Amino acid sequence: MKVQMSTDAAEETRRSLTGASGVEVRWIMPEGFLELPFEADDLDELAERVVQLARRALPGADEEVHRQWAAMCAANYDDFIEAGVQYAGFVTTEVDGIRCTATVNVSVVDLDDRAGSDPAGFIASTLRHLELGQIEEVVLPCGPAVLCVGNRSAEVDGSLTQSGRPEPIWTSFIQVQIPLVNETVLVLEMGTPTVEGWDVFSAMFAGVTKSVRLFDDQGAPLVMPG
User: Fold this and answer.
1) Which residues pair with 212 in a beta bridge?
2) Per-residue pLDDT tens for 21-32?
3) What percent of the chain has pLDDT over 70?
4) Max intra-chain CA distance, the chain
5) Is residue 80 packed enough to be buried (19+ CB in 10 Å), middle (13-18) or exposed (0-12)?
6) How does pLDDT run across 200-210, given as a tens digit for each residue?
7) Please, how many CA atoms are within 13 Å of residue 36, restricted to the half-sphere of its CB?
8) Integer Cα distance of 99 and 142 in angstroms
């Protein structure tokens, strides 16, 4: 599956991805997001593109910090591939004078064979069993979806901490899973380690999820049943 991107306006950017089964997904990202590169001719080109992104993300930092930041991003690519991530972007802004950051990932994963005729209900039941957070079934313009709101712990590389040692960090997240008719699931997730930006980022992410539209291989709109 390949991400196809095109810019339609300065304020917002339309994104799309198309699977081999012919279901195309389109959504709109708000202004200000920087995106990790996913397409390159070889690893050297990909590494250089990540370093270029580091220069944009950390304009006041020196080259060594840029390369450390790029190396940290590059270390996540294996996880991205394993998780089926097709888009990964992040934004940094100030909320009430506090510098806040958030990430948004979009991925496509296989639907569990046991999902049956109510895949959204099956996903919701599974997530509740795993106790990942607060679970709710919702209906988006593109069809039924499952909303999960929770918190998880991750480790920050020592090169980016004041102590110089790896340190844990808690991230609050919203995940939306949309089962598709081709036996896959579209997963969108927003995460932020800065609680001060939660209200701003969650409202932004609500707009992203509501912008999701689905199309068949002839370009006709699709709405998932349910």
Assistant:
1) none
2) 678 899 999 888
3) 87
4) 55
5) middle
6) 999 999 999 99
7) 23
8) 34
pTM: 0.82
- How far CA 139 is from CA of 4, 129, 133, 213, 214, in Å, comes to 26, 21, 19, 13, 14
Q: What is the pLDDT of residues 58-79, one digit of tens each?
A: 887 788 888 887 887 777 788 8
Residue tagged 């919702």 (tokens): 138
Distance, in Å, from the CA atom of 90 to the CA atom of 41, rounded to the nearest integer, reads 24
Q: What is the number of alpha carbons within 13 Å of residue 18 lying toward its C-beta?
A: 10
Q: Which residue has 């679970």 as its token pair?
A: 135
- CA–CA separation, 120 and 139 (whole Å): 10
Which class for 220: exposed (0-12), middle (13-18), buried (19 or more C-beta within 10 A)?
A: exposed
- CB within 8 A of 173, min separation 6: which ones? 133, 148, 149, 150, 151, 152, 189, 190, 191, 192
Output the pLDDT for position 60: 77
Give 33's contacts (C-beta < 8 A, 6+ positions apart).
13, 89, 90, 91, 104
Give the pLDDT score at 157: 67
Q: Are 120 and 176 in contact (CB under 8 A)?
A: no
> Bridge partners of 163?
none
Give the amino acid at 160.
L
Amino acid sitting at position 203? A
